[in-house]
Specification:
8-stranded parallel β-sheet, binds N-carbamoyl-L-aspartate, binds zinc ion
């Protein structure tokens, strides 16, 4: 049985760092494991311009502990009012690597998101023209539609028609959770890819109800049936270059999760690569982890692969019950439980 694996230093292609003291507190967890990360723009207020992204990038770099190397890859938050000129500025900046589409109301801090694709077509056409990727939270927001069907419905009613209209638009379907999404991405041309989180690979929707209601297993898109989890594992271990690592690590203060109407998101940055190693190990596919974690993402984003290496050992450790991040206490995934792999320092 493999006891140690060494791979090219990976990147996280879907990360929520938040801002201020919480950002400074969670950043070292990510920087310890990943050389770069696509930093999501759903702050309050959202990062809607290249200028705001530059300032956010500066705050992240200023918060980086001395001696830690980490490159934030910035994104803009697409709104109904995003000007194609802003798309051009973003691409020209060299530090904005994508524009994020949040359907208005779909998830955390998404109220400023897009209310109709028609309103953003000029921006999307400019993105297709200059090759700036669209990163998509792929869920419809019609609450008449079952929460477990919102991703599949989004693909059928929004994403597939969009790609018909803009076939060269580069798209990352973020944090896919269903068999339908995995099949759609696998069958799509090379300009369409997907990120997959560790938690959607490790858990099915029963995890939200094990022994009682489990708010720390609630995220969006919501965990799905076991058959969908298995389809995700099959996709990420298939060797396809269209799937890559995106933790969607999304810290929320404990009191906002343990509530009668709790926030969506799981914090996994503390143990991200070890959690993915559990998935690939259980699937007998540890040999496929490096491409998923370290090659497919930079290749899609047309960035150089990292050259440094990281080592994972099959050594179990117990995750703290909570992380006291300044005025925020965050409960990590696997709080008080074991993770079977350890990232070697
Ligand atoms: N995934 C989540 O459940 N929440 C994310 C937003 C998102 O990625 O949808 C967050 O920022 O909290
Ligand atoms: Zn999302
Ligand atoms: Zn996210």
């Amino acid at each position: 049985m493999t006891q140690t694996i060494t791979l090219t230093r990976p990147d996280d292609w879907h990360l929520h760092l938040r801002d201020g003291a919480l950002m400074a507190a969670v950043l070292p967890h990510t920087a310890r494991e990943f050389a770069r990360a696509i930093v999501m723009p759903n702050l309050k207020p959202p990062v809607t311009t290249t200028e705001l992204a530059a300032a956010y990038r500066d705050r992240i770099l200023a918060a980086l502990p001395a001696g830690m190397a980490f490159e934030p890859l910035m994104t803009l938050y697409l709104t109904d009012r995003t000007d194609p000129a802003e798309v051009v500025r973003a691409k020209a900046s060299g530090f904005v690597h994508g524009i994020k589409l949040y359907p208005a109301g779909a998830t955390t801090n998404s109220d400023s998101g897009v209310t109709s694709l028609d309103k953003v077509m000029p921006a999307l056409e400019k993105m297709a023209e200059i090759g700036l990727p669209l990163l998509v939270h792929g869920e419809v927001t019609d609450h008449e539609i079952d929460v477990f069907d919102r991703e599949a419905t989004f693909i059928d009613t929004i994403l597939a028609p969009l790609l018909q209209r803009l076939p060269t638009l580069r798209v990352v379907l973020e944090h896919i959770t269903t068999r339908q999404a995995a099949a759609f991405v696998a069958a799509a041309p090379d300009n369409v890819a997907a990120t997959v989180t560790a938690h959607h690979l490790l858990m099915n929707r029963n995890a939200m109800f094990t022994g009682g209601i489990r708010p720390h297993h609630y995220c969006l898109p919501v965990l799905k049936r076991e058959q969908h989890r298995q389809a995700l594992v099959q996709a990420v271990t298939s060797g396809s270059a269209k799937f890559f690592l995106g933790t969607d690590s999304a810290p929320h203060a404990r009191h906002t999760k343990e509530a009668s109407c709790g926030c969506a998101g799981m914090y996994t940055a503390h143990a991200a690569l070890p959690l993915y190693a559990e998935v690939f190990d259980r699937a007998g596919a540890l040999d496929k982890l490096e491409a998923f974690a370290s090659f497919n993402g930079p290749d899609f984003y047309r960035l150089p692969r990292n050259t440094a290496r990281v080592t994972l050992n099959r050594t179990a450790w117990t995750v703290p019950a909570e992380y006291p991040f300044g005025e925020h206490t965050v409960v990590p995934l696997r709080a008080g439980e074991e993770v079977q792999w350890t990232l070697a320092d």
